[in-house]
What we know:
The protein has a domain at about 120-185. It contains 8 helices and 10 strands. The protein has helices spanning about 70-75, 100-110, 125-135, 140-155, 170-180, 200-215, 230, 260-265, and strands spanning about 25-40, 40-55, 60-65, 85-90, 95, 110-115, 190, 220-225, 235-240, 245-250. The strands form 2 sheets. It has a 6-stranded mixed sheet. A 4-stranded antiparallel sheet has the order 2-1-4-5, with helices on one face. Helix 3 (about 125-135) runs parallel beside helix 5, helix 4 packs across helix 5 and helix 5 runs parallel beside helix 6. The protein is globular, with a radius of gyration of 18 Å. The structure holds adenosine-5'-diphosphate and magnesium ion.
Amino acid sequence: MTVSAQSAAHRAPIVSTLEDADPATITVRLRDLHKIYQLGVNEVHAVRGLNVDIPEGQYISIMGASGSGKSTLLNILGALDVPTKGTYHLAKELTSKLSRDELAALRNKYIGFIFQNFNLLTRSTAVENVELPMVYSGVPTGKRRAAALSALEKVGLADRANHLPSEMSGGQQQRVAIARSLVNNPRVLLADEPTGNLDSHTSGEIMKILDELHQQEGLTIILVTHDPGVAEFTERSIILKDGRIIYDQPTPRVGGPELPDVRTVSLAED
Ligand SMILES: Nc1ncnc2c1ncn2[C@@H]1O[C@H](COP(=O)(O)OP(=O)(O)O)[C@@H](O)[C@H]1O
Ligand SMILES: [Mg+2]
């Protein structure tokens, strides 16, 4: 599905550049990053030598055909997985120097996740789902409920707090997941195909929420998508092919010159 180009037309001009960002504001820095999966006797070289700087507050999309390494990259950025070679600095910390616990603490404090399948606990209500990250980060019980309700309010779901996921539409479930991703006040939001299971109208609503989080709260957002209409909301587009970056440019503006290679590569099946 495609979110109409029209709905992206209101966006502010690009604020971050690729080349001349102040080094002090770099929140993600990858150098010669590789990931090799060992599958029995076979090696799968999923990510092959990525070099990327992402300044604080940038809104960036990652596109590419199925198997190009998008999820592998996102998992490494989210400190859910570690690179085989190369370095990853998150918030100035060299992640390979951190212990498991330190890495988990950095992840809890710094990163929020949104997934294609929402990943909500089916037997827990919306507010209980949103409370969960605070359990891991040690927020006292008494404070969790209020923070979760406030996060639900931000995504327009205060009135659904006590509903189960099965009692909500896909778009509502994704909004619960966004609220959950926000409760620990992350600085970076990672989204893997967040609109992949939603119709185009609902996708537009989700993109509007992400846009507001970026514009109003200055969140850094790194979003994997197949949909060029979704990528158009972002400021910068990276395209991966076979684990390598083949394109890294400010996202073409609506009404501006189109870059056919963005479309060609990104429209591949997943
Ligand atoms: N856990 C894993 N073990 C082995 N190979 C994997 C694993 N995860 C991904 N791969 C392989 O790595 C490559 C990149 O996968 P992935 O990052 O999921 O791509 P994308 O998200 O762009 O579809 C693919 O060839 C995939 O089969
Ligand atoms: Mg993937």
